[in-house]
Amino acid sequence: MRAITEQQKQEAIAAFAYEGTLIADTVYGSGHINDTFRLTFAVGNMGDLDVILQRMNADAFPHPEQLMENIAGVTGFLKKKIIARGGDPERETLNIIPTVDNKPYYRDTNGDYWRSYRFITGASSFDQVETPQQFYESAVAFGSFQRLLADYPAETLHETIPGFHDTRARFAAFEKAVREDVVGRAAEVQKEIAFFLERKETACYFAGRLDRGELPIRVTHNDTKLNNVMLDDKTGKGVCVIDLDTVMPGLAMNDFGDAIRYGASTAAEDERDLSEVSCSMELFSLFTKGFLEGCGGSLTPEETALLPMGAKVMTYECGMRFLMDYLQGDRYFKIHRDGQNLDRARTQLTLVADMERKMQQMQDIVRKAAG
Description:
By secondary structure, this protein is of the alpha+beta class. It has helices at about 5-15, 65-85, 130-150, 165-180, 190-195, 200-205, 205-210, 250-265, 280-295, 300-305, 305-325, 340-370, and strands at about 20-25, 35-40, 50-55, 105, 115-120, 125, 220, 230, 240, 250. The protein is built from twelve helices and ten strands. InterPro entries: Aminoglycoside_PTrfase (IPR002575), Kinase-like_dom_sf (IPR011009), Pseudomonas-type_ThrB (IPR050249). It holds the Pfam family APH.
């Protein structure tokens, strides 16, 4: 992506149906995909109004029109549900600010795509879990997201990243990367390669059930990290699920599993001391309780029973992707030091092995939480 010029940003600002006078313009957030700005407008006697302006990353999302069609459809549906239950649609879902010609995005003269949202006031997001309660509240929010969208026609959504959680296809790509060994790293990581190759049944676990029509396709978020939930500054409760770029058809178990993979680990994603890495059963139990509460009975009994497997499959998939990227010369995941993707792969395989040891315990926790 090219660097943004001031002229380009001013062109984008002028394209949206903002009110008032622009009085502040700052870079916002910690995301690595899109370019995000927080704009403040003075609106007469009404005070100041904050909005988010983003340039979408066309390298990560090559069809921004389809992406915004997904987001407009889902947020419009959520608003109706939120109003019906007496909630606040201004805070509990993203609100798209249209362009002056009433479109959900703007394409500038450089060919870049922009969008804008109302800023959610009185709430914050966190990159790391600081308290168990935060993890629990994020679980309730992601579960509620599932429940509110349970009757949304998932088949009408575009795949913004085709095959994003097709673990079976990821396994085939991994095998290819091992065979090709384009940068000559395979010899040094034979143990790690073997770990993933020996677990082909994990890669195919959900795909086989999908082939047989045993699992429902749902609207899924596909990036269920804590920082994609806004938590109320006063109550600490989840207010709004954000970053809907990867909302598309998927499996509820994958949304649950990705949150566990990242949030219930006892160590950083690139921890070198693997003795520090495990899946916390305390955090697993807390998230399970919150997620199922949020889902409010919208999952099938089989989906609920497969939640622990979702944690294993997502952790396995992510670890395999880290190792594949290492074998291909670190082309996809950003690294800040040599070997970082290998370290990431090792933490994930350590988590997978720990989950295998604790699978019965995880299943018991889910059964108890499901009542």
